[in-house]
């Protein structure tokens, strides 16, 4: 597929304002998950190259932190404008390397750009305090200052928004940053570098390094004493490794990790709205989204109505190449992901679950997993404990509010939860009882730049977006005047 604006398609790393190869000259291929065709070979950085990027960020940050909030705001606003101007091209690059349907990809570009727009404004609101002195001759003030050099390690499932959700506040706060995207999806990150350069982001303030040597680069990023902050989005398993790796240099860390979202339909729910919300919260990115509903709990009294209406809606979803008109479910990211989803379905059926729909890969393309509904599922199945990360809906039946809240909370994760119900006392009771960082009530879509996005328990800590997101990149200083 030809890209109209090939200036956005880069295959070298963006370091200190230059487009560079790794010192060894090695590359790795980026492929289209739909058909495994090679898109392009990109620079394969190693630890030595990574150290240079960190030094570039250190040098740039010394000047960047001296700029005014207004100056940083203007540059971020220009970057936002350029993202919106190029949203179709950025969307095509994203679909090519990640697979999600083009309308969803363009939607991600707009969503990702909204973080840059938001933090262009928040840059000017990093207020401090004037505190009444504790002694007659003392005056107390607090100010907020940039944390310093930041590194970000980001996932493949949202290769634009998971970067801007970090880079936006980091730059707004006066930090310089080195971003290491997933090896599957480096092109979206590099394209952001092109537009950052055009927006006037100074050399070295925003750096993008690409590599297939994930652990080596992670080690270089986490061991550097120049780096004061790591912002990670990815799996809980990797997040735990990175938290440990950052301990030796006491880095500030933010962790946006895995999820296992319950989707609860109470007996007084609007069933049609619940079905609509189920589709919205389950099938984004073919289910490869951290806040996707993972376990569906339906009250016995509405079970038959909900499941029959859901099956009709799911059976109408169009599966195929994300570049094709009307496709709603694209490929999973790789064969390992397909195998994982198939194994989780097989585990369920071996333990007694029934396949009401799907349960297998497409006959046309092994990377496409068919939208699947499982019934008669039990708590001893992997679909109850694992993050499915695929287009599979396991439906559990329940009778009481107490039992469903207990099941919903019966996980080490705590990212997002959803429920449909109309009794306002039930709504408040359940919303407060659910142990999650984010709760959708009568809606399946909760992600927005204006709200604090983040989880609890083993879904991580720290908030992204909202008025809180910039605090992750600031340090508070207390000054006592005698
Ligand atoms: N909470 C959120 O906001 C959020 C958003 C998107 C994805 N996720 C989670 O991310 C996961 C899917 O993304 P993924 O498969 O890219 O996750 P992943 O943890 O495998 O990889 C994420 C990033 O970490 C890097 N990485 C992997 N192992 C590493 C190591 N040992 N050292 C240093 N870096 C390492 C990868 O190259 C990638 O850039 C899911 O669990 C999903 O729930 C969470
Ligand atoms: O994978 C989860 C990301 O955070 C995507 S979104 O923020 O929910 O759109």
UniProtKB/TrEMBL annotation:
Gene Ontology biological-process entries: gamma-aminobutyric acid catabolic process
Aldehyde dehydrogenase domain boundaries: 19-478
PROSITE patterns: ALDEHYDE_DEHYDR_CYS (PS00070), ALDEHYDE_DEHYDR_GLU (PS00687)
Family matches, as Gene3D superfamilies: Aldehyde Dehydrogenase, Chain A, domain 1, Aldehyde Dehydrogenase, Chain A, domain 2
Record keywords: Oxidoreductase
A single GO molecular function term of this UniProt record: succinate-semialdehyde dehydrogenase (NAD+) activity
Active site positions, chain numbering: 256
Family: Belongs to the aldehyde dehydrogenase family.
Protein name: NAD-dependent succinate-semialdehyde dehydrogenase
Originating species: Flammeovirga aprica JL-4
UniProt lineage: Bacteria, Pseudomonadati, Bacteroidota, Cytophagia, Cytophagales
